[in-house]
Design a protein that fits this description.
With 196 residues, this protein is an alpha/beta fold. 45% of the residues lie in helices and 11% in strands.
């Protein structure tokens, strides 16, 4: 019997190794089948970018205006770019003693504007009021009137008048950027102080 075992020892060992290899092979492929392969998840960064864009848009479309005088809530308010004086007066809540007849409530608000609501019987200095709320019509303004605009000196005022004479009236406010030396930044500073 022992002689028989030694005689077929190689065959038995090879068969045993083969059986083990087959079992290992079956186990390996069975476990890999149990794994679930998923596709990579793409992170949507556009949401973050969209939020930033909305914040930028909001800051571009809003202005800061102060209201004081005969109001319950004097303060600096963030207002929409197209708001009127009447809108900020409502936010400030005028007192019973407020004299709203001295204020042009239909006037468009401008960034950094200060609205003073006088009390009845109080007289506003008209000179100071007109200088802060004067809108210049760039199609009709004289040289002196153009020079009241922030950043417009004698030379630029003359250039604006010459441009009008040579090219006709401005069709829109943005046409002012056709004047040499008036770029986007200068125009943004002037935009609320001019009209067509």
């Amino acid at each position: 019997m022992t002689e028989l075992f030694f005689k077929y020892k190689t065959i038995i060992s090879t068969a045993a190794l083969g059986i083990i290899a087959v079992i290992m092979f079956i186990l390996f492929f069975k476990t890999t089948d149990d794994f679930e392969y998923t596709t990579p998840v793409e992170v949507d960064n556009s949401v973050h970018a969209q939020v930033e864009e909305e914040v930028d848009t909001m800051s571009l479309n809003s202005i800061f205006v102060e209201i004081k005088g005969a109001v319950k809530h004097p303060n600096v308010y963030e207002m929409p770019k197209d708001a009127r004086v009447k809108d900020i007066i409502l936010l400030g809540e005028p007192l019973d003693s407020a004299d709203l007849n001295q204020i042009n409530q239909s006037e468009k608000l401008r960034d950094e504007m200060s609205i003073y609501v006088p009390a009845k019987g109080e007289i506003i200095e008209t000179e100071r009021e007109t200088s802060s709320s004067h809108i210049v019509n760039i199609n009709k303004a004289s040289k002196d009137e153009l020079m009241t605009l922030n950043g417009i000196g004698a030379k630029k005022a003359e250039t604006i008048i010459n441009y009008r004479e040579e090219n006709g009236l401005f069709e829109k406010k943005e046409d002012l950027m056709n004047i040499p030396g008036i770029g986007q930044k200068t125009f943004e500073n002037l935009e609320n102080d001019i009209e067509i």
